[in-house]
Specification:
Blueprint (H helix, E strand, L loop, with lengths): L6 E5 L2 E6 L3 E4 L4 E4 L6 H7 L7 H17 L3 E4 L11 H10 L5 E5 L8 H6 L2 E4 L2 E3 L2 E3 L6 H4 L5 E4 L4 E6 L5 E9 L3 E3 L10 E2 L7 E5 L4 E3 L2
Parallel strand pairs: 4-5, 5-6, 6-7, 9-10, 10-13, 11-14
Antiparallel strand pairs: 1-2, 2-3, 3-4, 8-9, 11-12, 12-13, 12-15, 15-16
Helix pairs in contact: 2-3
Length: 221
Amino acid sequence: MMISEATTFNLLEQDLLLLPQKAIYWQQQKALIITDVHFGKVGHFRKAGIAVPRDMEQSDLATLSDLIHEHKPEKLLFLGDLFHSDMNNDWDWFILWRSQFPQIQIILIKGNHDIIADSHYQKLNIELHNELLIAPFLMLHHPLPDDKLQNAAAYVFCGHIHPGINLSGRGRQSITLPCFAFGSRQAILPSFGKFTGRVAIRSAQNDKIFAVLKDKVIAIA
């Protein structure tokens, strides 16, 4: 197991570790914050006849397990799109994984892909919310537009758009890396799942952007 090289970031007097596995460890709450895992997406595509490596789902679960063993969180906060669509064989892997960490509180902020019946999550002792205030942060799935951010109950943590930052080099090379994007009132987290894309985002002048490389997180702006 590789020990992650985290980047520390203090926000509203809260200590956050930005992890290269595209998660945040919130030290005061002893919580891992993760979004857009999309478990079951591999099974969904394979069911449709699209060739995708079978071990990709297990790889995401193994990464999550490594983070738990390393940081020993008391709770996991999933900011939506935990499972990609309807139940498939990958759900069995998720059940097995949950059985290994029965003591951890798991909270799911439901996203647009979370269409599995609530009862299945509740059987696994997973709490479900549409939004959740854990001061000083408000946990959502979808980012709020600027006009609604003005009236938000707290600083927003969210996902959904799989943010990336485009970096250009010499010779016209460019790459879009996943990133953590901290605005004045809202943070958008990168998608945790390996079988997800990313969209380059526009940032405001005072935003704090952290790009995710293979083994570290670096400040871009």
